Amino acid sequence: MRLTDAEQAMFDGSKGAAVARAMDLLVRYGEALGAERLVETRNVAGAFNASTPSVRHIAEDGFDRVYSELNLDSDETVEIPHVAVPTCQLITGIDNDNFATQGVDPDLADLQKRSERYLGRRGINMMCTCTPYQVGNVPVRGEHCAWMESSAVIYANSVLGARTNVEGKESTGAAALTGRIPYWGLHLPENRFAQHLVRVEAEVDDMADWGVLGYFTGFAVEEDIPAFEGLSHQPSLVKLKHFGAAAASSGGVELYHMPGVTPEAPTLDAAFGPNARPEPIVYGAAERKRTWERLQNASDRKLDFVMLGCPHNSIDQMALIAELLEGKRIHADTALWVHTPRAIRQIADRSGFSEIIEAAGGVVMSDTCPSISRRLPQGVRVIATDSAKQAHYLPAIAKVQGWFGSVEQCVNSAIAGEWLGVVQ
After folding, report:
1. Average of pLDDT values for 258-268?
2. Any idea which architecture 305-416 has in CATH?
3. Burial 132-154 (b: 16+ CB within 10 A, else e)
4. Strand partners, 338
5. Do residues 90 and 369 make contact, with C-beta atoms less than 8 angstroms apart?
6. In the prediction, which pLDDT does 55 show?
7. What is the mean pLDDT of residues 44-48?
8. What is the distance of C-alpha 332 from the center of its chain?
């Protein structure tokens, strides 16, 4: 791998042992990927926080030890300096306010808070969400980033036109200290053209429809890049958020093109570039029905738990949930957890949305979700969710039955205590 003079100096230890460890990691990582050089980044989103039981024993030796082992792949503990570039913490396992409701040991919750103070003093912003673009981290078109979290990566690449691969704890930990990441994959312009064409012949309207289309797309193209034709209207942030999360869950999609919507595809010709336009993959009424049915992983309609907010809810989604719940009461045998970034939670509090949700018996949570925390209310057997991503993961992770539907279906079912949705 070719290093610039500045990079070679960091590698040789000019900025301390931690940065040298980070450079060593990036060089080994880049060479394994076949990257010829590194690229500068000023936008890192990773997982740094100590919030899981498995990390507790490492943290006994201090948070420098945690970062060294988990974010730099270092057997030696090195002193961690202030990060070199803007860096944020993604979603964590614990809601600092609702950890008791999650069933989290208070000592573990305290460990997370102490870890947050350690990281904050080193310049890592505690956004604590899978949707950093909803709370201020909005990279611009063409900007090279180093991001974890599949649903965030596909949004950054496709909707914002930034450039990032799906990174890990180690590579983002190293990028934060160096401002570098291997130049490969979707950082290269020639790797960002479409390879498949999806022709949409079914109506795709509300958020649930977009989740189903995304879920279909991931299975259809796997890790490749799709382009779309036949969409009938301009989708919102929320719809694109749920589409991308679903496509990254059922497949490994990190970038897609929708002419007139996504920034690198004003036309289908621009989306495909030098690639030949293939025969289309058709998404019609039959494909929509099969995909919807595929998302239903339940047979029992008695409902124990409803989870809303994966990826984390926007303020518009919080307003909708409050509107559907106002003056009503969630069934005594059913729990409702609503997840949103902490920054948006503050807006929801001031707007009265949180109060309405909690008056109905729901819980507004921040910083986490059940798939990350691996925590649900005790005794849950059957869940419902408005997220195709959560419907894909949570039944397998938590060994529960799962229903998928619209926000309205989920809220009405939480009130009734049974699943009221129908297979489309």
Report:
1. 96
2. 2-Layer Sandwich (3.30)
3. bbbbebebeeebbbbbbbbbbbb
4. 308, 364
5. no
6. 85
7. 97
8. 31
- Residue 423, pLDDT score: 57
Q: Is 125:88 a contact under the CB 8 Å cutoff?
A: yes
- Percent of the chain at pLDDT > 90 equals 96
pLDDT of residue 208 exceeding 80, the answer is yes
- The torsion angles phi and psi of 198, rounded to 5 degrees, stand at -105, 120
What does the angle CA 381 – CA 382 – CA 383 come to, to the nearest 5 degrees?
Answer: 125
In the numeric block, the tokens 């948070």 are attached to: 63
Domains 5-189 and 305-416 in one fold: yes
Distance of alpha carbon 62 from alpha carbon 70, whole angstroms: 13
Q: Could you tell me if 46 and 176 are in contact, meaning their C-beta atoms sit under 8 angstroms apart?
A: yes
CATH architecture observed for domain 5-189? 2-Layer Sandwich (3.30)
**Contact yes or no for 187/161 (Cβ under 8 A):** no
**Residue 57: which pLDDT band, with cuts at 50, 70 and 90?**
confident
- For residue 291, the SS3 value is helix
Contact in structure between 62 and 119 (CB atoms under 8 Å): no
Mean pLDDT score, 33-46: 98
Phi-psi region of 99 (alpha: psi -120 to 50; beta: other; left: phi over 0): alpha
367 CB-near residues (< 8 Å, 6+ apart) = 91, 92, 94, 95, 96, 128, 129, 341, 342
The average pLDDT across 254-263 equals 97
| Domain boundaries along the sequence of the chain | 5-189, 193-294, 305-416
Specify whether the CB–CB gap between 71 and 46 falls below 8 A: yes
If we measure between CA atoms, which residue out of 312, 322, 158 comes closest to residue 240?
A: 158
Q: What percent of the chain has pLDDT over 70?
A: 100
Collapsing DSSP to helix, strand or coil, 158 comes out as helix
